[in-house]
Amino acid sequence: MTNPDDKLRAMLREDTESPEEADSLLATVKQIRRWQAPEASPQASAELLKLLAAEMPAAKKSWRLRLFENWPLLIIRSQMRVVRSEIWLASALVMVLGTVVTLTTHSTSGGTIPLAILAPLVAAVGVAMLYDSDTEPMLELEDTTPVSIRLLLLARLTLVFGFDLLLGLAGSIVLAALNTEISLWPLVMSWLAPMAFLSGLAFLLSVVFIDSMAGALLSLGLWGLHIMMRSAEPINTIILALSLPGLAAPETRPVLFGLAAMLTGLALWLLGRTERHIGEIA
Prior knowledge:
The chain is mainly alpha-helical. The chain has one domain. It is 74% helix and 0% strand. It has 13 helices and no strands. The protein has helices spanning 4-15, 19-34, 42-55, 63-68, 71-78, 85-105, 114-128, 136-142, 149-178, 184-209, 212-229, 237-242, 253-281. It starts with a helix and ends with a helix.
């Protein structure tokens, strides 16, 4: 019967260059063969990971990486693909058109500048498109995620309104730079307060009626009535009331910003009730 040590030595001699080297490795190989691996357990794995983590060098994160790892920004970035691409394209096209028309007409009145008229409309229509009956099946799927429906829609609202706000600011800067008769800050304030109010109103109406067209049309009608009637002679109180002077008056701008926040908050509260209803059905 062959001695196990002789068989192991023969195997080592086949893999090594000299018999002396094989003999020197014999004791080590025998010890390795006798060794038995410990049984794996969650506690042993956790201790091993703890030891390995202590030996790993600390990763240096740039300020850009730390910024994008912020959870509100992660939610906003995740919603960029959810917002319809038509909203981005239509908003940009209308804003560019308003800037070009303003440059060609050289209007110096803040109330008649095309950009000041179009900016609130673009934002209101874009915001109204965020919620309707077509989005309800998607909302039911999103209700299964840890993130609240209200938070997701608030992220989309921030994206759309922020995009329109940047477009309006860019157009205003271009106009102020190319036309010395146009002042930047008065132009921005002429459309910013109405934009915030109409966007909040459109968002609330789309949530209440579960129809984006309802929010868009009612906001457009309100702003269109203001634009048409303010150019008419205020021969009586009815004409003056129909012109809705508060939408453009500088002294009512804080009120418009406050109403925009209240309308948006009310819409989110109503969405919270919808979210609870979906959760009860599920």
